Amino acid sequence: MTFALVSGVVVGAIYGLFAVGIVLVYRGSRVINFAAPALGTFALYLAWTMTHERTTSWWTAAILAILATGAIALLFERLVVQRMHAASPLAIAVATIGLMLLLTAIELLFWDPSPRFLPGPLEGDGIRVAGLVISPTQLLSLVVVAGLGYGLTQFLRRTDFGLGVQAAAMDPAALRLVGVPLAEVSGFVWATGGMLAAIAALLVEPTIGAFGPGFMTQAFFVPSLAAALVGGLDDVNGAFVGGIVVGVLSELTSWAFLGSSVPGASTVAVFILIVVVLLVVPGGLVGALRERLRTNLLATATGGLS
Amino acid sequence: MDLVLKPGVIAFVACLLLVASLAEAFERPDGEPATVAIDDAASPTPEASPSTAASPTPRGSATPSATETATDGATPSATETAGADGDGDTPSTDPSQPQPSPTAGEPSPAPSASTPPSEPPPPVGPREATLYDDDAKTVGITDDRISLCGHAALSLAAAFNTSPDDLNVYWEMVAAQGGIHGRTVDVEWKDDAYSGDTAVTAAENCKSENPFFIMGGIGFDQIPQVRAWAEQNQMLYLHHIAVAPSATPTYSFSLSPTVQAMGEQFGRHIAGQYADRNVGIIWRDSENWRPGRDAGRAVLDAAGVAVVGDHGVGNNQGVYTQQLNDLRTKGADVVWVWENALNAAQIINQASSQGYRPTWVVFPFQTTLDVLSGRDQLQIDGVSSWPSYVEGGYGGAFPEYGFDAEIAAFEQAYATYRPGVEPNDLLWQVWVGNKVLHRMLSDCGPDCNRNRFAGMMLDGYRMQVNPACPVDFADSRSVGNHIGGWRFFSMRSFLHGNNQLAFETTRYCVTSLG
Predict the structure, then answer these.
(1) Which end of chain B, N or C, is more open, meaning fewer C-beta atoms within 10 Å of its C-beta?
(2) 3 state SS of B67
């Protein structure tokens, strides 16, 4: 069980990173970006091409792939999202499915569906925790996820632009009146969401072991969306926590149902979690807990004062 | 049987020619008695022993030292005897005999790149089935052309820098040599994107082009859907490996084994090679995959093999940590992965990253090996219904099947017709399959039509053409003579060239890998 917990945290951190990208876009535009994992897969192909055909180092290839993926997301925002400003978020969400399909088609056209493998940036034996070997790349990914989470949170809380991002989806008209550049906010969240998906894909791929066209969508979209929902679609920190919750739940269920005749138990568990969260705490588990904590603190403080 | 006997006069002529061809077959120019060619079941078929390719050198440079015989005791059908060659100039299909070049004397644009089965038409074709009326039975076939259409994951071809047209090099070569009974074979391919629904759409697109029959490429999940569609739409359908139909089909046939038969052979291979080891299984838990695992598991259980872990997984599950950890914890040192190429690669790499390196048993696709890390420490076996391929990696293996000679011809053909295309195991599989189809269309005769073609199989068609395994639609397991592939290969990985991992065939066309 400890093994399942540890592996759940390792996998969940990646779910969390994908989820942050989804949350960020949602906060900035009230749109769920179905193309997030597809952008991650595309980054993998770019990095793979650079490392294999141009003998670029992993780090250089990764940085270029992340930037390129961010640029693609930004391009999509400029060419599609901006032009659909009068459309409903649902319509734009459907457009992101179009982007997902387009990227997969490009992968099929210019690469192919045969499996590819992009080795991680770090080599070595890693460390063993509760029987699970955590590779150097996995350790790196945990550090990167934590660092990105902290940095992004601070940026959103402590800068005017970050506050603008947080407020963008609430009242765009009012925000425009106070001088927040909405177009830049929108471009920022889409580009950052794309780059986060690229980082997540680059960090998780060495663990998965191989990838093909659209692979990240197939394997990571549902748990990532679940992580975003569990954490709260408005809550960047919640997305990380949601990722860990979903990762641990998934691995624990997989462990508990090992050898049973129930197929796909971990997927079913994630779906049940989504339904329960949407029914009971539609604002997200983390948001609800935080609200409860705040209420209790206030009550305590008020009680103390009286 | 849905067969209609042709007029008596044709049958009479057929008998005369049958006697004549048999007499010729038994009398060789040097006066030595010859083995009756063609009928694999009637004449014992050599099965390369496991020791055959157990050489340490790539591609089994050792010549097989012994052969096993395998016979089911069945007698050859009229179809096969009349149609296998038809002219006495037999394409010596007995694999135990040296293989004369079937194209000797024929024009060859690719000097050493042509080994299609010999052409001269049998004077009498097989009996006709009654699937189609007079108009429908000649759909897709004219005096100078046979139109075929296939669904396959075409993007997989692109994986090797090839286009769908590159799959048809064999037919280009045949056309350059005069075609089959004067007909060229044109094959149109539609992408099924590895999806059952898309495959049905692809088949519908095929049908709109009025092909002689539709072919179904690799894909456990696509074929059953297309097969159901083909039955509903009365479309002649030849497909690759698929789960056995629940009822005898009418329009669907296969030259490949069923999913159940493949799974059984995985079990036999493991039980035969690793009986004293702890075995784990990771398998795709879906309706089109599960029957294969069930069949293999039954074999392992019956053989008393210790199956210490047995885990169903979802399609594209992505993370297999729990399953692999369980198998490692329980000491599984042989793991059967009943999954596709991508997922098998992920499973092996994830295990390697955890320091878990059992002997793997997988479907032997080169594309899986190409993405494995730590390849010098991996031991991987393959079980398949097709022979292995490594470019230029031949050197004397399985001469009774003309294995190396055919690879040389295959490479020469691609060098001639597609100089920019690098031969690979996928094209090799297609090449071998096309050669079998060539032989079938040839045996169908100059008056071939869809009823006659189906009738061959329904009548228990048997034949063998190098380097393919014998086809036997009369096998007792062939679901009303609709399944004709009952031979198997085992392979193992080896390092060659620049630390490249590849498969080499260790057993060739055996009836059982046990």
Answers:
(1) N
(2) strand
